[in-house]
């Protein structure tokens, strides 16, 4: 049985999603947990890579459960419950759903959304969960620059150098920069950046945020920002923003990927 696993994770203690030869990854610990519960190896493939220290408030992976699973669990709901019991508290499984035999967590995704969180005042509750930026930011200037990123075209200027990709064309459908308040402390204000696209290049969101921060600090004009985009040259864009502020927030799929709801294992 092929299933989609919906989950979230705090990436602080992991070297990204994908398995690494000498470092612990999210993929590795989920595969090890499933092997422990199912009694045999179970490969888990994710909807995309996240770098070391990057989080996911929503993530999707697919797996093919071993045939022996029907002897260990009464339902996929029970499997999700047991999996949460085995995993550390920094990974949470929301649901496990049966999907078609060809469903693919990465290739079937229609759209993805990332959120980047920024704070400017020292805050112990945000350390590792949001990126601290020193100094004032011109939010209006960042919003204007962000609007220039909404198009279907070449985003090579924000792609990690040396990335093995067939194309750097992306359809970016939304880039919002907004001020937000932190409810736990009166007067504490941060910045939230939301980016939606059909696909993302390696390191693309962090490169975009880093360049928008250059605009916000007055180091890069609106015209210069447009020139960065047109250049398709990563060296012209800003430094990548820290990993700790980045969250994969949403992944959309066609409705027909999921089979009629039935949590019983057969």
Quick summary:
With 266 residues, the chain is α+β, with helices and mostly antiparallel strands.
CATH architecture of the largest domain: 2-Layer Sandwich
Q: Helical region count? A: 5
In the CATH hierarchy, the third-tier topology of the largest domain is known as Alpha-Beta Plaits
Q: Low-confidence spans: pLDDT under 50, at least 5 residues?
A: 262-266
> What's the total count of β strands?
10
- Give the overall pLDDT as a whole number: 92
Query: What is the 3D shape?
Result: globular
Secondary-structure element order, N to C: EHEEHEEEHEEEHHE
Proportion of residues in extended strands: 25-35%
**Alpha carbon gyration radius:** 20 Å
Largest sheet: 10 strands, mixed
């Amino acid at each position: 049985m092929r299933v989609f696993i919906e989950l979230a994770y705090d990436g602080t203690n992991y070297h990204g999603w994908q398995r690494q030869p000498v470092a612990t990854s999210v993929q590795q610990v989920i595969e090890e947990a499933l092997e422990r519960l199912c009694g045999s190896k179970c490969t888990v493939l994710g909807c995309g890579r996240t770098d070391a220290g990057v989080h996911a408030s929503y993530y999707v992976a697919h797996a093919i459960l071993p045939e022996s699973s029907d002897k260990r669990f009464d339902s996929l709901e029970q499997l999700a419950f047991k999996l949460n019991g085995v995993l550390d508290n920094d990974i949470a499984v929301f649901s496990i759903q049966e999907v078609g035999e060809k469903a693919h967590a990465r290739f079937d995704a229609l759209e993805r959304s990332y959120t980047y969180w920024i704070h400017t005042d020292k805050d112990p509750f945000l350390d590792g969960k949001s990126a601290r930026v020193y100094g004032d930011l011109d939010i209006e200037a960042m919003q204007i620059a962000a609007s220039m990123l909404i198009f279907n075209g070449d985003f090579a200027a924000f792609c990690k150098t040396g990335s093995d990709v067939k194309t750097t064309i992306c359809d970016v459908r939304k880039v919002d920069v907004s001020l937000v308040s932190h409810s736990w402390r009166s007067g504490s204000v941060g910045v939230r950046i939301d980016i939606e696209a059909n696909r993302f290049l390696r390191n693309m969101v962090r490169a975009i945020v880093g360049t928008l921060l250059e605009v916000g600090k007055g180091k890069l004009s609106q015209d210069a920002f447009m020139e960065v985009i047109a250049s398709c040259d990563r060296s012209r864009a800003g430094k990548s923003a820290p990993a700790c502020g980045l969250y994969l927030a949403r992944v959309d799929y066609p409705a027909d990927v999921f089979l009629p709801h039935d949590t019983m294992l057969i």
